[in-house]
Every structure is written in structure tokens, then in C-alpha cells.
């Protein structure tokens, strides 16, 4: 890595210190520093490690190029493959604020709205992606209806994986299948395809002195309400975030009623990966509450 970064900078670069981000990242990650330049390095193991990091870099490039929102700059081409077949993503480290100010929260909302201003021709993408560690099928569906795409490409695949992981029972599977059948009547007004971050929890926006910077995207064209539902998926965001968003793009008055509808696929994804531990089991309760809300 030192050789790759040195070649990119045109000067010798050697790691003098580092910060371990293990408690904040889904993959092993470090910030590596010499006296004048810091690099964020994320390691992905396994046969598809290099491919997964390549998809992430492509997603950052897509969002940056199409929306103009700030993304981390790649270093040394963005990726270094290691002899064991794994890979490391290299991007310029960000000078993140320790505590977010009200203006930082507003900037997150504005950045997300700018992404959503980018329109597409169809729901989905020609490129598949990842949601956390799970591969994600982004192929458009024949009808080009959002509700079919959401059912076929998001809910049903992870309903199967959650069931196969014994994270949900047969009764929950049956209720989920009923909910899928009702998606057209629950989904609200039709929308045109809009570019999504794809995993827009607020932790995937880094607050800097220059504004919000997007990280860890999984982009495709979909319904903006899905991103909005994920924004406060793990923890609340203050009113400034929603106000910042609405400076650029509207939020339909019925979104609050549909928020849990667009979170269901993410509940299933978490249960697939973590359904056997305390963290994952919390989401089983949230899934049950959502089903109770929409099905009674």
C-alpha cells in the first residue's frame, strides 16, 4: 500500500500512525497517516472482496459525477489487490467533525436531496451491488413499477435468506407474503426513478467543515422514500436534516405512514446476518411491529 500511495502522490509516503475504525465500519478499516497525508483503507477478504470494493468505488463515482455531492477522492486508483486475493480500498481520509452542528445535519439533508434530483429511465441498475455484506440484485423488472421492483429485488430475496437462516418463523413468512401482495395499495403516489444512495443511514454521511461527504453507497434508481426511511433507521436525526432536504426536494405528506414499509427489506437483511445475536433480535421486534401496523 505504501508503494501504491507513494506512486500516486509522486513522493515517498510511509505510515507513521494510524487509527483503527473497527468499531465504526462493517469491514476492517484504518486511517493511515504520514506527516502530511492521510488515507482511509478498508479491507475486504474472500473471493469477492476485490469485486465488492470495486462496486463501492463505482458507486461513489456515480453519485459524485451525477449529483455533484462530495465523495472521498480515490488514492492510487482506489483499490490495491493483495497476494491472498483480498483487496484494500484506498481513498483520501476525511477531516470529520467530532460533534455535528445543526448546520451539519442540514447539510446531510441537502446532500441526500441533491442525489434524489438525478432521474433515471427505469427502476434498478445495470450493475448489481451490496447492502452491507449481502449481494443485491439491481436488475430492472419487466413492469418497471416500483412496487414490483421493491417486492422482487428487495423484500422477497431477503425474506428467503432470513427464513433459511431460521431468523423468522413460518407465520412471519406468511404475513410478509400477504404484505407483498398489498404493496400497490400501500405504496402511495407513483414516482419516477430517482438516484438513491441505497444505504442512506446518517452515519453514511461524514460531516466536515466543507459540508456532508457521502460514503458507503449502494446506488440504483428507486423511490426516494426508501432513502428517507433509512436516514433515521438506527437513530433519530434532528429537524434540521428534514428541513435541509426540503430546501431542495419535497417530502410527500404520507411518507410518515409509509416509513416502516420501506424499512422492511432492511429488517430482513439484518436478520439474515445477525438474527442469532442480541443486535439482530431487536429488529425482529421492529419487523413484527411493522407487520402489525400494516396488516392489523
From TrEMBL:
Family in the record: Belongs to the fructosamine kinase family.
Instruction: Name the domain of life.
Output: Bacteria
Q: Which UniProt keywords apply?
A: Kinase, Transferase
Say yes or no: keyword Thylakoid present.
no
Is the Secreted keyword given for this protein?
no
GO terms assigned for molecular function: kinase activity
Q: What is this protein called?
A: Fructosamine kinase family protein
Amino acid at each position: 500500500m505504501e508503494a501504491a500511495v507513494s506512486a500516486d502522490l509522486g513522493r515517498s509516503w510511509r505510515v507513521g500512525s494510524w487509527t483503527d475504525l473497527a468499531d465504526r465500519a462493517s469491514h476492517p478499516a484504518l486511517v493511515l497517516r504520514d506527516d502530511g497525508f492521510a488515507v482511509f483503507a478498508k479491507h475486504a477478504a474472500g473471493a469477492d472482496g476485490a469485486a465488492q470494493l470495486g462496486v463501492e468505488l463505482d458507486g461513489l463515482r456515480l453519485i459524485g459525477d451525477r449529483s455533484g455531492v462530495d465523495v472521498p477522492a480515490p488514492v492510487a486508483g482506489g483499490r490495491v489487490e493483495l497476494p491472498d486475493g483480498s483487496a484494500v480500498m484506498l481513498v483520501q481520509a476525511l477531516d470529520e467533525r467530532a460533534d455535528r452542528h445543526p448546520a451539519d445535519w442540514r447539510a446531510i439533508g441537502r446532500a441526500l436531496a441533491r442525489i434524489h434530483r438525478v432521474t433515471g429511465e427505469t427502476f434498478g441498475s445495470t450493475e448489481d451491488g451490496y447492502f452491507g455484506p449481502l449481494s443485491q440484485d439491481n436488475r430492472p423488472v419487466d413492469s418497471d413499477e416500483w412496487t414490483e421492483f421493491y417486492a422482487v429485488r428487495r423484500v422477497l430475496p431477503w425474506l428467503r435468506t432470513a427464513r433459511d437462516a431460521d431468523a423468522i418463523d413460518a407465520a412471519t413468512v406468511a404475513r410478509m407474503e400477504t404484505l407483498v401482495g398489498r404493496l400497490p395499495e400501500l405504496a402511495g403516489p407513483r414516482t419516477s426513478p430517482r438516484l438513491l444512495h441505497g444505504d442512506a443511514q446518517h452515519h453514511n454521511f461524514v460531516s466536515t467543515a466543507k459540508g456532508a461527504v457521502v460514503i458507503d453507497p449502494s446506488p440504483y434508481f428507486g423511490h426516494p422514500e426508501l432513502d428517507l426511511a433509512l436516514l433515521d433507521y438506527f437513530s433519530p436525526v434532528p429537524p434540521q436534516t428534514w428541513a435541509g432536504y426540503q430546501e431542495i426536494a419535497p417530502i410527500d405528506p404520507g411518507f410518515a405512514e409509509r416509513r416502516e414499509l420501506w424499512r422492511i427489506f432492511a429488517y430482513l437483511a439484518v436478520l439474515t446476518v445477525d438474527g442469532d445475536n442480541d443486535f439482530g433480535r431487536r429488529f425482529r421486534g421492529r419487523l413484527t411491529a411493522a407487520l402489525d401496523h400494516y396488516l392489523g
